[in-house]
Each structure stands twice: as structure tokens, then as C-alpha cells.
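Appendix B.2, paired examples.
Example (i):
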Amino acid sequence: MKKPIIGISLGDPAGIGPEIVAKTFYEKEIYDICNPFLVGDEKIVKQAIEITDVNLKIHVVEKIEDSKFAYGTIDMLDLNNIEMEKFKFGQVNAMCGQAAFEYIKKVVELAMKKKVDAIATTPINKESLRAAKVPYIGHTEILGDLAGIEDPLTMFEVRNLRVFFLSRHMSLRDACDVVTYDRVLDYIQRCSEAMKRLGVKGTLAVAGLNPHSGEHGLFGREEVEQITPAIEEAKKQGYDVVGPIGADSVFSQALHGKYAAVLSLYHDQGHIATKTLDFERTISITNSMPFLRTSVDHGTAFDIAGKNIASAVSMIEAVKLAAKYAPYFTREI
């Protein structure tokens, strides 16, 4: 099977992105399963190679087709958008925010043109984006707009556990309010289709919102009035879904193979389950777009940037996961 090309964006240059990218390209196993390709700034990458003390060369190309894809060499597009005299690690910087946005934009362009088979992204900083007047709060919003998708679907994967999220960044009070029949049904449908696009077979389990899924209304009415009716309707439509299942057990059951994935009903419910299991190897997959995207699930870590102490485990796992699913991923939405 032809090895997939994985497009990697450098992330915010002032954070740990360049360091973990250098360490990822130095991981021999990456080249055994894919052809990694970087979009960034050559000067920053050279600096990262020096900081991490890895034996890598840089091969700047105008077209991906000119890449060597040989271990020991970083094939990359150089956007040349950092002025080193204005650069400093660990600081909010409009120049770096703009640069990070441009790396994402270019790697998405490559994915939309099918020049890369999937993309893996490194951390960006929300404050730096804001300083650069980039009109997005984060990766998901940027990717959704560039791809023309209103509500991209997020899935976490760690070991054998896959978790989708009914809502992302909102207060817990608001998150409870959006657990409605229509939204739960819509997400069951979308998550099921997302699993098919990745080649994942099996049952989707819906987590309960309240303790013990509400105990038939004793601890809350959401399961009785909203969640269970949505699940029953989805079953009638032919979807392989069960629930609601108590959140204190459903994630463990999925980890051990009883379910192919879990629909978490709010942000922290699923984040706690996955990150407690293995923080570094919890990888984010953005689905429901014309391309596959994986990402580390940590930030820019400004406090340790440039010190060669950042772990590249999450970035390596993100590239591995992109390579794992790329051959099965169908671009049709």
C-alpha cells in the first residue's frame, strides 16, 4: 500500500510546536508508515533542530512532488513569515499568530487539492491569533471555515477508546441546556457517519447526562424526555446505537471493546475519561470535513518553549493516527 502523505503545520513559532515537530521528524517509525511534509518557516525549523539536537537536514521545496521523503530530511514549504529580530519564545506575538494561521491555511489548501492525504496540526495560541486580528478562536473554527463546514465534528482517540462530543466550549449550564432531542439525534447520525468514513465498525454508545442516567427521572428528566427518545428514533432509522449508559461505566466498557465509540454529552465528561487514561496519547480527530485532521490535545506551553523539555509523544501519536486512518478515509461528506 502506498504510504500516505501527512501535511504538518508548524503551529505558533513561539511555543513548543517547532520542537515537537523536529522530534517527530526524527522518529524513524514515522517514515515506516507515512511520508511527513511540513509547512512552516525554515529559520524557525533550523532553530528547533539546534535546540533539540537532532540530526536532521531541511529540504525546502516549491512543490510536494519534489520531496525526498527520506528519513533524516525534513521536506517543507517555507512561508518565510517570521522576522527573527522580532521573535522571542514564550510570548504572545501578533507576528507568530499570523504565521501560525498562514501555516494552517496552506496545509488545508494542500489537503483540499489532495496533495496531502491528511493533516496533523501543532498547537496555536488564541491570544496571539487575537493580537494578529485573525477572526477565529481556535483550530476547529479555522478549519471549519476554510473547509466550508459550519460545525466540524471532534473525536478523541486513545488506545481503543473513541469519544465524540455533543458540545465543546461552553459553560456546564449551557451544555446541559443543549442536550435536546434534536441535537442528540443529529449527533448520533453524524457520529455514525463519521465512524464509517474512518472505516470504524461497531456500536455507538450514548453516555448519560445525570448520575446513573437519571434513574428513570429520579435524578433529572433529560434522559427520559430528550436522550432516550432520540436514541430510539435513531435505532428506527437503522443506526447501531445504544444508551443512555451511565458515564461512570460507558467509557471503560468502550475501552475494553464493548462499544466502538461513545458520544459524550459535554466537554469535560469525555475529556476527563480520555486524558485520565493517557494524557499524552489522547489525540483529537476533526471529522465531517473534506479532509482528515488529527491534532495534539495540548497547548503551546509558552513556559517551557525553547528549552528542549517538551515531550513529542502527542505529536508523534497524532501523525501515526493520521497515517492509520488516511487509507480508509472517504472525503465525501
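Example (ii):
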Amino acid sequence: MFYKHIVRNDFVQLLGPFKTATEELITSTHPTISLVYSVKKLLVHQLHPTA
């Protein structure tokens, strides 16, 4: 049971940046390439593996 809780938390942490990116793009009525690039850069930074 404890293992499932850990795995669930890992998935929430993994998917969190995607939720933020989606919300950022949805709130804009006309997303520009600069907004899309910023969101992509944020995703790459947040998803970069750490030691």
C-alpha cells in the first residue's frame, strides 16, 4: 500500500509541469510563438533529470 502512495506521488510530480503548461496556454486567447516557446522552455527546465 505504501509503495502505491509513493508511485502516485511520483506521477503527480511528473505531470505537474504539464498541467501548469496546459493552463498557461489555455488562458491565452491567442497564444503567440513567444508564449509557446516560454512554456516549452519551462517544461524542459522542470523535467530535466537531477542527480
